[in-house]
């Protein structure tokens, strides 16, 4: 049960499922421990920025692609990383979109961008240490698992 009487920082983020011929676009980022992390393009919303605007901005810097016609898929909401220094209340929106342009990331944290067949997406997911890395939390990947299986839900409480 959540303790909503506590004050937690709120983290708002948006990620986009970009699909082409049965493949999902993932970004490759290097983690602090040197390993490669695969994630959806997107990221944190700035103050005063809608989730949709954050999705457009973040996808452009992480992939080089311009996205339009955002369609809402799901919302992930709840307390995340409880007991760590990054503890927060999360509102993470997931969208699909049309896209144009060429793959040309400008985000220095992105070391690659890769089209991955749906059936291979789950095999790239890494869980585990360090625990403060939210992307390695299995709950963050459940909506993506459901999406590639063709069974997305609209709401995922953490």
Strand order of the largest sheet: 5-1-7-6-9
Mean pLDDT over the full residue set: 90
Q: How does the helix and strand content classify structurally?
A: alpha+beta
Task: Characterize the main sheet.
Answer: 5 strands, mixed
The total number of structural domains is 1
Distance between the amino and carboxyl termini: 10 Å
> What's the helix count?
3
Helicity, as a percent range? 10-25%
In CATH, the homologous superfamily goes by the name Nucleoside Triphosphate Pyrophosphohydrolase
- Shape descriptor reads globular
Number of strands: 9
Low-confidence stretches: none
What order do the SSEs take from the amino end to the carboxyl end, as H and E? EEEEEHEEEHHE
What would CATH call the architecture?
Alpha-Beta Complex
Strand percentage lies at: 35-45%
- Radius of gyration from the alpha-carbon trace, in angstroms: 15 Å
CATH topology: Nucleoside Triphosphate Pyrophosphohydrolase
Give the C-level CATH assignment.
Answer: Alpha Beta
Keywords:
globular; alpha+beta; single chain; NUDIX_hydrolase_dom; hydrolase; 18% helix
Explain the layout of strands and helices.
Blueprint: E1 10-17, E2 19-20, E3 23-30, E4 36-39, E5 42-44, H1 51-63, E6 66-80, E7 88-100, E8 110-117, H2 118-121, H3 138-148, E9 155-157
Parallel strand pairs: 1-7, 6-9
Antiparallel strand pairs: 1-5, 2-3, 3-4, 3-8, 6-7
């Amino acid at each position: 049960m959540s303790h909503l009487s506590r004050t937690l920082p709120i983290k708002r983020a948006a990620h986009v499922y970009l699909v082409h011929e049965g493949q999902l676009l993932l970004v490759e980022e290097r983690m602090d421990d040197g390993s490669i992390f695969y994630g959806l393009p997107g990221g944190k919303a700035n103050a005063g920025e809608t989730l949709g605007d954050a999705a457009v901005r973040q996808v452009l810097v992480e992939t080089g692609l311009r996205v339009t016609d955002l369609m809402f898929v799901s919302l992930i909401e709840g307390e995340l990383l409880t007991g760590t220094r990054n503890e927060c209340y999360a509102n993470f929106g997931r969208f699909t979109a049309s896209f144009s342009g060429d793959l040309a990331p400008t985000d220095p944290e992105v070391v690659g961008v890769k089209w991955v067949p749906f059936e291979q997406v789950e095999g790239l997911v890494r869980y585990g240490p360090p625990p403060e890395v939210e992307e390695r939390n299995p709950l963050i990947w459940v909506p993506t698992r459901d999406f590639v299986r063709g069974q997305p839900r609209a709401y995922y409480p953490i």
